């Protein structure tokens, strides 16, 4: 397919998403199933236009003055791919599969609009309602922080130290352009792709099948490190999901001690079994039944709450989610988070630790939850995650956001990772 056909397909998919309120991955998959002639390269290229269209949606629609899939898709080529107006016109010329090229009116509107004069939420490419929530956490830096969520993400790998080391994996994937991550100790990174490029399918490699590495964003690796899981400890991973952090902790513990992995949603927990096997993890007990946790009350050295959240820290990877999220959903997540913190805290032994993690950028889901928990429960102390950071990563790495060295927030702008929040509290008695 030429660029015109790819652009037309992206517009069709974006229209479908808008009309049926469906996630991008689902709309792309259905389009692929009904257009079997399109090869892997075409699908990836169409995906890039769709995802960049969603990443830059607010600014594209503002500049074109149109709330349309067409504005998203042309905006993707202009802002995401960095193509010029003339360049696009010449690429579409004579292509019978291309959509109508940009009209004089559209070009005039695009060129006549100055992005710097756009309202802050447009410059940040986020929903208007979220401005207040970004402002609470990042103050006058909020537009810079939020707009970094519109960049393309890398693919990050965590070397599974139970089976391999960094050099071994780096050698095996050298042709894929992997390099060491800046902060995470066992991380490798394949940088974001340009233009129509696509990342290699590293999950298809024999090294992945052998369990040498996992796909895990560097931010997720860093917070897994900050949990500071110690060999011989008893740890409850209360929101284990597919086990991303469980696996990282198991490797940090060198398969010693015991991790109990639980999730309220059995479907989300299910993949963990296969992943544990592939990774050679032997110190994890999976609990799909809540009642099987009863015997652990008051006995755990650490309890990890990787809470359900808005996922605003992952908008680089899931830009459709930012346009679907509502303030009401954020409020629902907050209520869940405080209930889960209260429930999970009962498993911590006196002197033990409660770790709270989200992949949200919003203070309302992060510091506010931790401070409110402290007010409800006086026998807990908020510890300095900043000191653990310095012990683990030193002083020469990109710095996370931290009001007081206690809680830590990673962001694409600050640490070049997905957005993550980390806090740890100790039970005094
Ligand atoms: C951010 S995800 C966990 C991701 C996972 N820890 C990882 O690293 O791959 C949050 C998880 O919390 C689970 N969850 C939601 N409500 C819960 C509850 N009341 N108790 C336990 N888990 C819950 C969800 O099913 C979801 O899998």
Automatic annotation (TrEMBL):
<dbReference type="Pfam" id="PF01189">
    <property type="entry name" value="Methyltr_RsmB-F"/>
</dbReference>
<feature type="domain" description="SAM-dependent MTase RsmB/NOP-type">
    <location>
        <begin position="145"/>
        <end position="428"/>
    </location>
</feature>
<keyword id="KW-0949">S-adenosyl-L-methionine</keyword>
<keyword id="KW-0489">Methyltransferase</keyword>
<feature type="binding site">
    <location>
        <position position="306"/>
    </location>
    <ligand>
        <name>S-adenosyl-L-methionine</name>
    </ligand>
</feature>
<dbReference type="InterPro" id="IPR029063">
    <property type="entry name" value="SAM-dependent_MTases_sf"/>
</dbReference>
<dbReference type="InterPro" id="IPR001678">
    <property type="entry name" value="MeTrfase_RsmB-F_NOP2_dom"/>
</dbReference>
<keyword id="KW-0694">RNA-binding</keyword>
<comment type="similarity">
    <text>Belongs to the class I-like SAM-binding methyltransferase superfamily. RsmB/NOP family.</text>
</comment>
<keyword id="KW-0808">Transferase</keyword>
<protein>
    <submittedName>
        <fullName>MFS transporter</fullName>
    </submittedName>
</protein>
<dbReference type="InterPro" id="IPR049560">
    <property type="entry name" value="MeTrfase_RsmB-F_NOP2_cat"/>
</dbReference>
<dbReference type="GO" id="GO:0003723">
    <property type="term" value="F:RNA binding"/>
</dbReference>
<dbReference type="GO" id="GO:0008173">
    <property type="term" value="F:RNA methyltransferase activity"/>
</dbReference>
<feature type="active site" description="Nucleophile">
    <location>
        <position position="359"/>
    </location>
</feature>
<dbReference type="GO" id="GO:0001510">
    <property type="term" value="P:RNA methylation"/>
</dbReference>
<dbReference type="InterPro" id="IPR023267">
    <property type="entry name" value="RCMT"/>
</dbReference>
<feature type="binding site">
    <location>
        <position position="263"/>
    </location>
    <ligand>
        <name>S-adenosyl-L-methionine</name>
    </ligand>
</feature>
């Amino acid at each position: 397919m030429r660029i015109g056909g790819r652009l037309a397909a992206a517009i069709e998919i974006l229209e479908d998403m808008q009309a049926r309120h469906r996630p991008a991955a689902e709309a792309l998959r259905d389009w692929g199933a009904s257009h079997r002639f399109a090869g892997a390269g075409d699908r990836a290229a169409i995906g890039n236009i769709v995802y960049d269209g969603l990443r830059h949606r607010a600014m594209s629609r503002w500049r074109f003055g149109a709330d349309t899939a067409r504005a998203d898709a042309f905006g993707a080529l202009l802002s995401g791919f960095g193509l010029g107006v003339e360049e696009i016109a010449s690429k579409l010329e004579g292509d019978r599969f291309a959509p109508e090229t940009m009209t004089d009116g559209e070009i005039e509107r695009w060129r006549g609009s100055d992005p710097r004069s756009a309202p802050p939420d447009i410059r940040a490419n986020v929903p208007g309602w979220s401005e207040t929530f970004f402002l609470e956490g990042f103050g006058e830096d909020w537009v810079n922080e939020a707009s970094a969520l519109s960049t393309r993400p890398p693919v990050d790998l965590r070397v599974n130290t139970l089976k391999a080391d960094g050099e071994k994996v780096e050698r095996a994937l050298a042709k894929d352009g992997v390099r060491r991550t800046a902060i995470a100790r066992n991380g490798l990174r394949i940088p974001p792709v340009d233009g129509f490029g696509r990342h290699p399918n590293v999950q298809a490699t024999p090294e992945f099948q052998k369990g040498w590495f996992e796909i895990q964003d560097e931010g997720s690796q860093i917070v897994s490190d900050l949990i500071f899981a110690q060999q011989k400890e008893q740890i409850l991973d209360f929101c284990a999901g597919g086990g991303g952090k469980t696996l990282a902790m198991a490797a940090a513990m060198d398969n010693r001690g015991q991790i109990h992995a639980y999730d309220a949603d059995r479907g989300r927990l299910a993949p963990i079994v296969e992943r544990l096997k592939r990774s050679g993890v032997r110190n994890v007990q999976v609990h799909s039944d809540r009642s099987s946790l009863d015997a652990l009350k008051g006995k755990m050295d650490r309890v990890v709450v990787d809470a359900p959240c808005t996922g605003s820290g992952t908008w680089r990877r899931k830009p459709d989610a930012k346009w679907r999220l509502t303030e009401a959903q954020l409020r629902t997540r907050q209520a869940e988070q405080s209930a889960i913190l209260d429930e999970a805290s009962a498993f911590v032994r006196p002197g033990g630790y409660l770790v709270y993690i989200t992949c949200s950028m919003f203070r309302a889901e992060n510091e506010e939850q931790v401070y409110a928990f402290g007010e409800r429960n006086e026998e807990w102390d908020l510890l300095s995650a900043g000191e653990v950071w310095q012990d683990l990563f030193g002083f020469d790495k990109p710095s996370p956001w931290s009001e007081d060295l206690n809680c830590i927030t990673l962001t694409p702008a600050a640490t070049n990772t997905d957005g993550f929040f980390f806090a740890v509290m100790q039970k005094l008695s």
